[in-house]
Amino acid sequence: MSNHDYQRKLLVTPLLDQKQIGPASIDVRLGSSIIVPRRTFVGSHDVTEKQNIRQVERRLYDRFRLKYRSGFVLHPNQLVLAVTLEYISLPFNVFCEVASRSSWGRLGLVVATAAVVQPGFKGCLTLELANLSNSPITLYPGLPIGQLVFMRVEAGGQTNTYEGRYDCPTEAGLPQFFAKETDDEMRFWGNPSNNSDTKMFANDDAGD
After folding, report:
1. pLDDT, tens digit, 9 for 90 and up, residues 58-77
2. Which of 50, 144, 175, 202 has a 20 to 30 A CA-CA distance from 27?
């Protein structure tokens, strides 16, 4: 099979059990990479300040590697970043949504708060796991944790190039602000004292 053929096919690997394939979805399992936000006394995460965002990200997170049959306890109101065991490759006429499995949802576990995976994506998916229940939930690598629901898209306007900010990850990934030109808009909505564009508009208003 040529590389060009792979670009046209949906790949999800490894599938440990054929039962992961459902009528309208594919179940995905929890991988071993976990990122845990630290508790801090920071007033807020101000992502409009480009010069500080990388330093803030490095300071506020810890990485863990889960071992076989070693549990991770997700406490109430805690959010962590995890990763799928499966590596996926989407063709450019398919996108997918990540959804919670019903049983986990009834237990209070929310999976993938940022759920849309764009056409052409390749890599393991970072999952945002949040415990909304009043009791801790123990998670193990390899457990079926979520499901992918696939949909076709029209081919018009596609570039056959994935243009997202998370390119071919294999572990849980931190948020990447200012990774795309469109993020430069955030400076406009940030602190006016650090924003020349805002000053310009303010001066224009003052002269009216």
Report:
1. 667 888 999 888 899 999 99
2. 175
